[in-house]
Amino acid sequence: MVTYLFLRKLPYLVIGSKYERNEVKPSVEVAVKIADALEVSLDYLAGNTDLLLEKNVVNKIIDIQKLDAEDKAHVFAMLDASLRDHKTKKAYTN
User: Fold this and answer.
1) Which of 14, 24, 34, 39 is the 20 to 30 A CA-CA neighbour of 61?
2) Whole-prediction pTM value?
């Protein structure tokens, strides 16, 4: 059973190592699937940023963008207040 599973994954291992050695470049569709599987952005996967955004954070940002202007302003006001409080606490505890 283990041998069967290994042999089924062998083509993926070979292709994956070719990506790692820069012998082959993935298509955009494959890059999207890789990024989704690793739960990183395409920019992070491509090395265009070193900022690793958590998928749940990105999803919340997308949800906020869908809000109307008034609700968005309320969310940002609460977020600003929370971040300000956190920075203040951090400054006084150090």
Assistant:
1) 34
2) 0.52
